[in-house]
Write a structure and sequence with these properties.
This protein has 326 residues and is mainly α. It is built from 11 helices and no strands. Helix 2 packs parallel to helix 4 and helix 4 crosses helix 9.
């Protein structure tokens, strides 16, 4: 007489549930899930490249030689930073994963959205040179953002949406193993902080992705605040020591001109209603404040620095003129 064990298939014992095996359909979905996980991990870089090409595709596609390699290096750095941070944040359990999720959303939104806004204003990305002057420019930058808070928020909303959706999908699809997630959780903040101090090609052509330029700018600000930057190497406006020049044959007070010269700092000509207009939409408040102004339509830049331009306008001295001390 055969025992109950012998009558059961595959030697299953009595009282034990049969092993649940994944169906063929589920096994076929495994490569699909892996492909979707990989797509999510590179999604931040795709967004960065989309934003960059939308603003300067001819320049980026024209990078050759050294500049081409620096741009490819920036893409690789961007993939490592965002991929590691997102992989660590995709773990479903643990408070540290939630902290990294918030960090991923905030930093990615600032890096992409901030660069988007900055490029719309200045036709160039924020870089480490600009961050070195942050201590002197914080008030002006803050006031500018308050005056243009609507456009600033609009620039931030798309990358914020992409970052939040990416994290939510990654927590469902990526599913990192516990050991790998722990390692990534340790490496992610170290990689992010390390990106603050990785040099990029930030001048002239700016042959680097905008997010990498932003991260390096944060590093420049940190070095400045901690006193690691050589302040003597920074070009800062300073008082001239020229000898006073007496006004030859000054006109009497009764015939002296009453002139108010209005200049806007760091604003392009095509963003301002220079001439009075009936329906000025670019600078309506300035337009209404001086309806009978005399527009200066043939102004030319003498340099690349606002501080030097103002010194030239106020003094009439050439920007290449040295200090007169004797």
């Amino acid at each position: 007489m055969q025992s109950a064990t012998e009558n059961r298939p595959n030697g299953e014992r009595a009282g034990t549930a049969p092993a649940v095996r994944p169906s063929a359909a589920l096994r076929k979905l495994v490569p699909v899930r892996r492909a979707a996980a990989l797509a999510l991990l590179v999604a931040p870089v795709v967004m960065v490249l989309t934003v960059d090409l939308a603003r300067r595709a001819p320049r980026v596609l024209g990078f050759r030689g050294f500049y081409g390699w620096t741009y490819l290096g920036a893409i690789a750095e961007s993939m490592v930073v965002w991929g590691t941070l997102l992989y660590a944040a995709s773990r479903r359990r643990g408070g540290w994963a939630r902290v990294l999720s918030v960090l991923f959303v905030i930093v990615l939104t600032l890096a992409v959205g901030g660069q988007r806004y900055f490029h719309d204003q200045y036709k160039a990305y924020l870089n480490v040179d600009v961050s070195l002057f942050a201590s002197n420019l914080m008030d002006s930058v803050f006031n500018q953002l308050l005056a243009d808070i609507g456009n600033y928020i609009i620039a931030k909303l798309p990358p914020l949406f992409v970052a939040v959706v990416t994290v939510l999908l990654a927590r469902r699809i990526v599913r990192p193993r516990r050991s790998r997630a722990i390692i990534a959780g340790v490496l992610a903040p170290l990689v992010l902080v390390g990106s603050f101090f990785v040099p990029t090609q930030h001048r002239h052509l700016q042959a680097a992705t905008p997010d990498v330029l932003y991260l390096e700018a944060i590093g420049g600000l940190i070095r400045t605040q901690l006193g690691f930057t050589d302040q003597s190497r920074q070009l800062r406006p300073m008082a001239r020591s020229s000898l006073p020049v007496a006004l030859a044959n000054p006109p009497p007070k009764s015939v002296r001109p009453n002139v108010l010269f209005v200049i806007l700092e760091s604003v392009r000509a095509d963003a301002v209603c220079i001439e009075p207009e009936e329906d000025c939409r670019r600078t309506p408040f300035t337009d209404r404040a001086a309806p009978n102004r005399f527009p200066l339509l043939q102004m030319r830049s003498l340099d690349s620095s606002t501080a030097i331009s103002l010194a030239v306008l106020w003094s009439g001295v050439s920007p290449t003129e040295g200090c007169i001390t004797e």
